[in-house]
Amino acid sequence: MEDNVTGSSEYVVIKAKSNGCQVFGLTRGQDTRLHHSEKLDKGEVLIVQFTDHTSAIKIRGKAVVMTKHGVVDTEE
Ligand code: TRP
């Protein structure tokens, strides 16, 4: 996967449980900043990967996050 050299082929599934749930992508490297955000409404699902550019994801709002490590709920 040429666009994702340091990333894995794993996907993270985020399902919004309320309207206006936000998902932020944080940059990889020394400088940690938000480089992208997505707004999800209740029931919407976002499927994402970590990449060369994204090393962390922050979620604001009620959502269920599914990864190979298990299922986590954000709390509100
Ligand atoms: N830019 C940081 C990095 O690539 C992003 C990051 C990853 C981070 N994990 C973190 C920032 C944990 C704070 C806490 O490592």
TrEMBL record:
<comment type="subunit">
    <text>Oligomer of 11 identical subunits arranged in doughnut-like structure.</text>
</comment>
<dbReference type="InterPro" id="IPR016031">
    <property type="entry name" value="Trp_RNA-bd_attenuator-like_dom"/>
</dbReference>
<keyword id="KW-0804">Transcription</keyword>
<protein>
    <recommendedName>
        <fullName>Transcription attenuation protein MtrB</fullName>
    </recommendedName>
</protein>
<dbReference type="InterPro" id="IPR000824">
    <property type="entry name" value="MtrB"/>
</dbReference>
<feature type="domain" description="Tryptophan RNA-binding attenuator protein">
    <location>
        <begin position="9"/>
        <end position="75"/>
    </location>
</feature>
<dbReference type="Pfam" id="PF02081">
    <property type="entry name" value="TrpBP"/>
</dbReference>
<dbReference type="InterPro" id="IPR023558">
    <property type="entry name" value="Trp_RNA-bd_attenuator_dom"/>
</dbReference>
<keyword id="KW-0694">RNA-binding</keyword>
<comment type="similarity">
    <text>Belongs to the MtrB family.</text>
</comment>
<keyword id="KW-0805">Transcription regulation</keyword>
